[in-house]
Amino acid sequence: MNETGFIFDLDGVIVDTAKYHYLAWKNLANELGFEFTDEQNELFKGVSRKRCLEILLDIGQVKSTQKQFDTWMVEKNEDYLKYIEKMDETEILPDVPKILQYLKERNFPIALGSASKNAIPILEKVNLLSYFNTIVDGNNVTKAKPDPEVFLIAADQLGVEPENCIVFEDAQAGIQAANAANMISIGIGDAEILSEADYNFNDFTEIDLEFLEGLVNKNLK
Ligand code: B16
Ligand code: MG
């Protein structure tokens, strides 16, 4: 087995599902009588569904019983799944298949490390599930990012030491989780928001294979 492992976040790294999460949360906010902005949606990236609803209710200053809370969680997810239903390969973010193909050909172990409980159906929809040696998602973790749990489980399942793992993340909480796991963190997206990452890129089109090769050879922070 290869000594270096690669861990990909899902939402915002492989596919842009943040826009669908946003629409579903916005619909719920509107139903509850308040607005939810694109800017506020930034707070939701990499954050668990339960925590997102807590933040949303804080924004709208809405109080709820446990029963209402649970109903809204289900409602939001059902709405989100309607958007996901229509997804296909065209929604894969640029150059993601190229990078996955390269890593697969070189026999690098690849994991998904996502907070989403919908990760497997999404990867099936966009036809990328077969690239992953293991999937660690919101169904397998007890602690949300920035806790390193999701990435540490992924490293363990890949049989790779955490310090030999390279993580691609689009959320600040995700970069913090990768750093806390003592992994190499690569921020995908706004370098200002992801300033704690070891390396920053706007998207995968900026990552050339020589860079990955160099990272594997160095394999040190
Ligand atoms: P679900 P990631 C995260 O996925 C999203 O960024 C976050 O906005 C969402 O609330 C969370 O998944 C839970 O998603 O409702 O599908 O279980 O970025 O960690 O891949
Ligand atoms: Mg993400």
How would you describe what is shown here?
The model has no long low-confidence stretch (mean pLDDT 95). Helix 1 packs across helix 4 (66-85). 43% of the residues lie in helices and 11% in strands. It is globular and about 55 Å long. The longest helix has 20 residues, at 66-85. The protein has 2 domains: 5-15 and 91-219, HAD superfamily/HAD-like (Rossmann fold, 3-Layer(aba) Sandwich); 18-84, Putative phosphatase, domain 2 (DNA polymerase, domain 1), CATH 1.10.150. It contains 9 helices and 6 strands. Bound molecules: 1,6-di-O-phosphono-beta-D-glucopyranose (B16) and magnesium ion. Magnesium ion binds at residues 9, 11-13, 45-46, 170-171, 174. Residues 9-12, 21, 44-49, 52, 77, 114-118, 138, 171 line the site of 1,6-di-O-phosphono-beta-D-glucopyranose.
Task: Give the tags.
binds magnesium ion; alpha/beta; DNA polymerase, domain 1; 2 domains; 221 residues; single chain; Rossmann fold; 9 helices; six-stranded parallel sheet; binds 1,6-di-O-phosphono-beta-D-glucopyranose
